[in-house]
Amino acid sequence: MEISVTFLLTGCLIQGVFCGFNINLPERVEALEGSCVFIPCTFDIDQKYEQDLTDSAKRIWYKGILYQGKTTVVFDSSSPDTGLFRGEIFGTPTEKNCTIRFNNVEQKDKGSYYFRLETNGRLKLSYPKTIEIVIIDSPPKPTVSLFEDQEKVKEEMEVMEGSSVNLRCSTKIFCSSRPAVLTWSSSPEHLLKESVTQQQRQNETELISDLIFTVTHRHHSATFTCTVTHQLQKKIMKQEYRTLHVQYAPKSTSAHVSPSGFVLEGRSVTLSCSSDANPPELNYTWYRDTEEHLKPVQTGQNLTINNTDPTHSGRYVCTAQNTIISKLDLSIYTTIYIHMVKMFDGELFFEEW
């Protein structure tokens, strides 16, 4: 009867019809040497064999390809401790579950595997579909991605100051019974301690750790590193990092005068303005503070006044602007004073201003 059922299944497959027999499992799965491999699997049977299927049915895994040379039993649910593989099969036969975990896989375990079902009745068959197990000797690096407003940031991790972002680290789960550990670090170190929310979760295939925070200009050029630690016969650690690029308006605008101190009448004086911003290309504008309003004097980072006289005394205002500021914002400024002195018969006289 076993042969007739198997031939019936094969004949249906040739005609493109499954006759109620089908199996769902991936074509390929990647396993880390020294870890375990998890194979999700479910099966169906023809309705006329439903009465044969009980929880006493054997669920057997073979290494090899059905009808193509030698095959080897690697796991038998009726004697799980005697096969070539040690592991655990999940669910029950009546749930039509063939999901299995093989422990401590090695390079010699790579190859094709297929599933067989044996009941106490007429139903005894092997499903011809195989899964390929690939063994890797070193785990991959974790993946670090940046999300802004739920959208993945693609351009060089560049975000705008004030935006809420999600920095996500994910790594593949090779063995749920030996979960990997994800940890974050940053340079500068203090950034992880300032208003950062950390969330971690996992699904069947991935372990995910999120850093959620609001971006400030202090995050510009900061580096965030995610480390994954795999607990095998020995600890294996892999790292990936990302550097944030933050666009922000001018900060810490400042000005200084050269020469410093009081300016001798008739000499020249240079006022210089500087600011911190990204993009760093800045437009500077100088204003003279008059009794009525601020009067534009000159654009440019430096303002030089030659042949000074007392009329040049007073308060000067410098504003800085980049592409983040679409128009001049007089709240982003710095001020500087020029104090004039005269020299008469070798003595200095202060001008009032």
Automatic annotation (TrEMBL):
UniProt main location, coarse: membrane
Any GO CC annotation of this UniProt entry: plasma membrane
Keyword list, A-Z: Cell adhesion, Disulfide bond, Lectin, Membrane, Signal, Transmembrane, Transmembrane helix
Keyword Magnesium: no
Membrane association type: Single-pass type I membrane protein
GO terms for biological process, alphabetical: cell adhesion
SMART domains: IG, IGc2
Domain named Ig-like: residues: 142-237, 250-331
MF (Gene Ontology): carbohydrate binding; sialic acid binding
Pfam families: C2-set_2, Ig_3
Annotated localization: Membrane
Residues annotated as signal peptide: 1-19
Keyword Transmembrane among UniProt keywords: yes
Family, similarity comment: Belongs to the immunoglobulin superfamily. SIGLEC (sialic acid binding Ig-like lectin) family.
PANTHER family per UniProt: SIALIC ACID BINDING IMMUNOGLOBULIN-LIKE LECTIN, SIALIC ACID-BINDING IG-LIKE LECTIN 5
Protein name: Ig-like domain-containing protein
